[in-house]
Amino acid sequence: MKQVFRARRATPAQQGLTLIGQMMVLLLVGALGAVALSSWLDVQVRERATEAYNQLEAIKPAAEKLGREQRGQPWPTSLAMATLGEAPAGSHFVPGSWQASAQERLLTVSVQLQDTGRHLDGQRLLLKGWLEEDGDVRWVCASDVDPRWHKQLPAPCQYKPSRSPEPKSE
Q1: Tell me: the pLDDT tens digits for 76-130?
Q2: How far apart are the C-alpha atoms of 93 and 55, rounded to whole Å?
Q3: Edge to edge, what strands does the sheet with 106-112 contain?
Q4: Which of 45, 54, 64, 91 could potentially form a cystine with 117 if both were Cys, beta carbons 3.0 to 4.6 Å apart?
Q5: pTM, rounded to two decimals
Q6: Chain centroid, CA 15 distance in Å
């Protein structure tokens, strides 16, 4: 005798996702979207801060030239931005916020950030140069940014604000 197999029809409970299943999928997509958006915003802020840091580093060649001319003597106390040359123009700096100051062998060039977003707006980025006895300059980046937000700074600037280079030991 020949058996006829009929395709079994799915009951309504076996077709597609249930309402609870759909809600779980939406919840998962929403959570992943929130994490992705937050990470993307952090990357944007870090990118703008890194661009500002790169512009700040444009001062280094003039300062190093001045350091070689000093031949191991302390920085001139009258050192100002005009001594180091033209401050780079950039959309991530508050206009007129460039400052340079020298104390003995430590040169500090600072600038106030703007348009970087989130927690960095209005904060200062500092580039500190330690003048060695031989005229070389060792650099370190610092900031007055709250330590909770240091991850948004460029990698060389993710230090404690009070950190400065130590002189070379002979």
Answers
A1: 877 777 777 666 666 667 777 778 888 888 888 888 887 777 678 888 888 888 8
A2: 10
A3: 99-103, 106-112, 124-131, 137-143
A4: 45
A5: 0.65
A6: 51
